[in-house]
Amino acid sequence: xxxxxxxxxxxxxxxxxxxxxxxxxxxxxxxxxxxxxxxxxxxxxxxxxxxxxxxxxxxxxxxxxxxxxxxxxxxxxxxxxxxxxxxxxxxxxxxxxxxxxxxxxxxxxxxxxxxxxxxxxxxxxxxxxxxxxxxxxxxxxxxxxxxxxxxxxxxxxxxxxxxxxxxxxxxxxxxxxxxxxxxxxxxxxxxxxxxxxxxxxxxxxxxxxxxxxxxxxxxxxxxxxxxxxxxxxxxxxxxxxxxxxxxxxxxxxxxxxxxxxxxxxxxxxxxxxxxxxxxxxxxxxxxxxxxxxxxxxxxxxxxxxxxxxxxxxxxxxxxxxxxxxxxxxxxxxxxxxxxxxxxxxxxxxxxxxxxxxxxxxxxxxxxxxxxxxxxxxxxxxxxxxxxxxxxxxxxxxxxxxxxxxxxxxxxxxxxxxxxxxxxxxxxxxxxxxxxxxxxxxxxxxxxxxxxxxxxxxxxxxxxxxxxxxxxxxxxxxxxxxxxxxxxxxxxxxxxxxxxxxxxxxxxxxxxxxxxxxxxxxxxxxxxxxxxxxxxxxxxxxxxxxxxxxxxxxxxxxxxxxxxxxxxxxxxxxxxxxxxxxxxxxxxxxxxxxxxxxxxxxxxxxxxxxxxxxxxxxxxxxxxxxxxxxxxxxxxxxxxxxxxxxxxxxxxxxxxxxxxxxxxxxxxxxxxxxxxxxxxxxxxxxxxxxxxxxxxxxxxxxxxxxxxxxxxxxxxxxxxxxxxxxxxxxxxxxxxxxxxxxxxxxxxxxxxxxxxxxxxxxxxxxxxxxxxxxxxxxxxxxxxxxxx
Length: 787
Description:
Organism: Sphingorhabdus buctiana
Helix content: 40-55%
CATH class of the largest domain: Alpha Beta
Strand order of the largest sheet: 2-1-5-4-3
Coiled coil: 282-309
Strand content: 15-25%
Low-confidence stretches: 739-746
Enzyme class: transferase
InterPro entries: HATPase_C_sf, HATPase_dom, His_kinase_dom, HisK_dim/P_dom, HisK_dim/P_sf, PAS-like_dom_sf, Sensor_HK_Regulatory, Sig_transdc_His_kin-like_C
Mean pLDDT: 77
EC number: 2.7.13.3
Number of helices: 25
Distance between the termini: 212 Å
Number of strands: 27
Number of domains: 6
CATH topology of the largest domain: Heat Shock Protein 90
Largest sheet: 5 strands, antiparallel
């Protein structure tokens, strides 16, 4: 029984445990069912969230297999899923996006190997979409073999914005670098101050201006460009600009490159980043303005001294300057001009005083002149005033939009131009009526001017000449007019040589009708050449006749000389006999002569001597004329020559009742000459004075010299001679005729003396006036030339 009870108890316990276990199982099953349902709902929500999320996941297993939704592939533009990543890369890695997809595959493998999360930008060929792939290691519990998850984000709009921002950033960066380079390279000192107004940046020009070593050194040492002025330093000025929020401008002095210069400083507020600054060197501008003022003052001084009337108007058309000729020219009072009248009022005042041309519509005419203020180029016009005055007006716009008027009185020039036109007409008429044929050729041998005589001689039509042909074009028409047509080249050569060498040329040319023309080419100042043609046919004929007559006269003169020489020798033989027999009779060879016979014999002897002297003079003169008179040149003392002349002339002077004065200077010295011939010349001159001097005659013989020669002077106080008598005295034929029957040398004394002096290379001068005596001067060189 006990055993059954125990069995029953055990069975009950087993049933109870089974019931309890069943109840627990049911409870757990219900719990798991509720958990499963919750999990299904969570999974559904997560799936829905993933489906609507902007990121698209894909699992890449270690073996390269790819797990992803259809939406993932559609996003990439694929119409079917691809099982592996390699196939996906092969499908999408085309054209310019090939490197990006291949790099994605490499980064996926790197993440699987190292577990490092990576990113990669992706593009799809043929699409403007942009993706961002984030690669991470997948959960090892779910994918225990090292799979990776690729989250693909569609960043098309974001990437576009990023690209735009990157472009803007690049542009801004380039602009910043360009601006920084411009500031650094700027010749103007520039700087920046931080919020504490201390220097934080300076450019190279600033460093050079303060003689700094570098920009960092200048910033570190806080070297200021401008010294404090009236207790205000550069930092205070920058603080003031920052306070008022506007740029502050200052004109200060600073020492730049060891030179004191005026600079303009600008402090520019830049908000919270500080204050910028820039300095502009104004010294050159100040100097230029000073130069401009000086030049303007100098210009006004120059205009004030001009003879032309000058008036200057400012941009507001008021008169700012005038000179005295302007005031006088237009009769305006200085008080009225000092009121700076306007341009229109000045014109009206000119009109009222009759100092402007007569015009029909004065307002319109005045408006046109007022428009000169807006012109860029000067204006010029001529005014003819009612009183006949000609004015040349030049209106010059000035740089300050003003106007400068210059009035030049051209009345005299107009009159001269009229006179010139008249002169040109007279010259043209004279030119056309010249006996010579005249033409002018330019440097290129083109005919430019000709007269009617040129046209007549060459018989060329006026229409041909009016075309101003070249000389080569005229040759066919000029050649037939010549005796030898080929000689027309002479004209061309003359013109070409005159134009090229600028030297006058002459030649002759014969025409076919027998006329001969003298050709002359003259270079003109303007580079042209003038050709003049003169008919010398008659002149040449006369010249030839004169040559023939001269030859005949020369031959006759030669015959005359020979005749005189022969006659002199023929006369000398009987004259010698006469002189010899007269001497014998005087010596008593024929017996004692009665007194009257002695007088006759003495007269015969004197006549024979005089005739011998005349024959010797004629012989010497003819020989000197023929250049055959012998001259012995030896050293000759002038004092000895004068003493011998004095010894010869003393007796004759005493007999004629004349006085003889000798004056030989120590500088007379000596010469090379023939003492006999020079004494013969001096004796002839003294004898001429004694013969024609009359009673109370006083003769002075003077000798002096210098380094080059000696001067011998024979002067008297005789009756003198007029011009005709002087000519006769030096003409051997006329003098011989006048002296026939008189004493002396037969009238050949002075002519022979002149010949003898000339044979010594000297000069013979005769000066005389009626009632003032006669002076004969002989100038002999120290060394006579070879005969």
